[in-house]
Automatic annotation (TrEMBL):
It comes from the Bacteria. This is ABC transporter ATP-binding protein. The keyword Lipid biosynthesis does not apply. Transmembrane segments: none annotated. Residues 9-227 form the ABC transporter domain. Pfam families: ABC_tran. It comes from Peribacillus castrilensis. One of its GO terms (molecular function) is ATP hydrolysis activity. Keywords: ATP-binding, Nucleotide-binding, Transport. The keyword Cytoplasm does not apply.
């Protein structure tokens, strides 16, 4: 596509129907270079279908998707964890690199770099021996091996443990200038890495949230604060049960961090 100015991907009035059921209804998106778009919503609302249409795997019933020409042959795509079971992990990644017309030395360097970032240490085993989490890491590495300028990730943190999730999210955060769309059912996860979150329900966009850096840093700050002090959550509130010895220290810490204390209860 020629003559896109700021936008590199345009989704215009896109709908998708299968067997008389509307999966997507009049979706519109404008994505600029460097945007990190999170798509959130319950299972079955059309998130995966939207990524398949953007990637070219599915054709929309109506509407259009326009992608800047320079991106068409270099899109990183993670839509499934189903990998060839009898291949070694390293052979699968070499195959992914070959599909992207990478030279052997480029492939080897990229496998080493992505493998270190995502802590993939089992590439000389057959994929059929992998757990779901192990397969997920290799599938993600396959999508990232050519350092794509634009990438699509469908529920990329499913089956990853806490450490695996943080490693993947940190890896994406390091990729300055990369544009990506990532689906998730966890909006808190998306807050850490996205500058825009699109909420979808029943095949339609119901809300678009623009996130500035202050909001993102505040979210990370709160998450770390809650984790460090072992604070529990209930609804939109936080609470902590402490012994008598910890009361003064906890209150002082909260005051220093400018956290509002709504109530203090004494439980015998």
């Amino acid at each position: 596509m020629k003559n896109i100015k700021e936008e590199i991907i345009l989704v215009d009035n896109l709908s998708y129907t299968i067997k008389n059921r509307k999966i997507l209804k009049n979706i519109n998106m404008q994505i600029k270079r460097g945007d990190r778009i999170g798509i959130v919503g319950p299972n079955g609302v059309g998130k995966s279908t939207l990524l398949k249409i953007i990637s070219g795997i599915l054709v929309p019933t109506s509407g259009t998707v326009k992608i800047e020409d320079s991106l068409l042959n270099s899109i990183g795509i993670h839509l499934t964890d189903e990998l060839p079971p009898y291949l070694l992990g390293i052979d699968y990644l070499k195959y992914c690199g070959t599909l992207r017309s990478m030279k052997n030395e480029q492939i080897e360097a990229s496998i080493k770099q992505v493998g270190q970032e995502l802590e993939i240490t089992y590439l000389n085993k057959k994929i059929k021996e992998y757990s779901q989490g192990m397969k997920k890491r290799v599938a993600l590495a396959g999508a990232l091996i050519h350092s794509p300028p634009f990438a699509l990730f469908d529920e990329p943190t499913n089956f990853l443990d806490h450490i695996g999730k943080e490693q993947f999210l940190n890896y994406l955060n390091k990729k300055k200038g990369c544009t990506y769309i990532i689906t998730s059912h966890d909006v808190n996860e998306l807050y850490k890495i996205c500058n825009k979150i699109i909420k979808i329900n029943k095949g339609q966009v119901v809300e678009t949230i623009h996130i500035n850096i202050d909001q993102k840093m505040y979210k990370i700050y709160v998450d770390r604060f809650v984790e460090d002090l072992n604070i529990q959550t209930t609804g939109n509130s936080y609470y902590k049960v402490v012994s008598k010895k910890e009361i003064n220290q906890t209150i002082n810490t909260l005051i220093e961090m400018k956290v509002s204390i709504m109530d203090i209860s004494i439980i015998n």
